Amino acid sequence: FLGNAVFVKNITDTKNLIIDEYEKDGKKIEVYYSLGKKTKVSAPEGDYTAYDIYGNEIIFGKKITVSSSPVYIVY
To answer: Which residue in 63, 68, 37 sits closest to 50, CA to CA?
Structure first.
């Protein structure tokens, strides 16, 4: 997902949660991952598609479970 992507900014860097924003081919990509325990965060609003580290599409409800394996949110 991040090949040739440009880092835009770090959205959050709390104790257990990191969200980084990238841009690639006119699309925004947010990468969610945790450095510690699994944590739940609110799913983003708007029209997006979520993928796991292997490129498999993930469907979320209102919360995303974030672990050390990145979740890619593509807008």
So the answer is: 63
